[in-house]
Amino acid sequence: VSLLLVGLTDALHLAHDETLDRHLPTIILRGILLVALLSLVLILLLDRLLLQPLRSLVASTEAFDPTLPPPLAELSNQPAELRQISHSISRVHQSLWQQLKDEQNRAAALRIEVERQQGALRQAEQALEGKIRELGSLSRIDELTGVANRREFDEALRREFKRAQRQRGVLALAVLDLDHF
After folding, report:
1. Are 98 and 68 contacting, i.e. CB atoms less than 8 angstroms apart?
2. Which pLDDT does position 88 carry in this prediction?
3. What is the dihedral angle through the alpha carbons of 68, 72, 75, 79, rounded to the nearest 10 degrees?
4. Three-class SS of residue 82?
5. pLDDT value at position 56?
6. Cβ within 8 Å of residue 93, ≥6 positions away
7. Ranges of the chain whose pLDDT falls below 70
8. What are phi and psi for residue 19, nearest 5 degrees?
9. What is the pLDDT of residue 148?
10. Are 90 and 70 in contact (CB under 8 A)?
């Protein structure tokens, strides 16, 4: 903008001059070249001072992987604001990495506890199955004599009666009563 103002003031000064028609294209061309040159210098300066550090910051954030340990801090000649942002990102990365390690350790401890509990559960299931078999036996056999009791007799009679019906056979039942056994 300032270059355009300088060009306009030059044009106004030359307006009083009768050779304006002859010098006007030269003045305009000189102004355009000066604006283009200064714009190019400004673009290069912005790229060098601001955009390149921002690109490197973007590249480091795109490469961010919390499963990897954080890289060593890169203290280059970046502007203070970008160094502060980069430092903050590094701290977040360090924190996330530490949380990941803590969670992995916790998960490993939980896996060990689950395996221990599964072993205890298997032992309890085996003990329970043994007790169920023992109770089943006690419900059908007299503990004192080791002879089948009334419940076993009723079930055996029912089984044999059904078998005799299926085979259309004859069923015989003998009953023995022992006094003072």
Report:
1. no
2. 81
3. 20
4. helix
5. 74
6. 64, 66, 70
7. 1-24, 27, 64-66, 68-79, 181
8. -95, 20
9. 86
10. yes
The tokens describing 25, both together, are 């294209």
Instruction: Please give the Cα distance from 140 to 150 (Å, whole number).
Output: 8
What's at 20, amino acid-wise?
Answer: L
Cα-trace Rg, the chain? 49
Identity of the residue numbered 1: V
Tell me which residue has tokens 């970046």.
Answer: 78
DSSP 17: S
H or E, element range at 32: helix 20-46
To which residue do tokens 């009953």 refer? 175
Residue 17 CA to its chain's centroid (Å): 77
Q: Position 79: which residue type?
A: P
Determine the Cα–Cα distance for residues 7 and 4; give it in Å rounded to an integer. 5
Q: Say whether 106 sits in a helix, a strand or coil.
A: helix
Give the CA-trace dihedral at 138, 144, 150, 154, to 10 degrees. Answer: 60
- So what's the pLDDT on residue 127? 96
CA nearest 89: which of 67, 74, 104? 74
CA distances from 174 to 31, 157, 171, 177 (A): 132, 11, 10, 10
Q: Give the residue from 37, 30, 38, 32 showing the smallest Cα distance to 14.
A: 30
- Determine how many CB atoms are found less than 10 A away from the CB of residue 32: 12
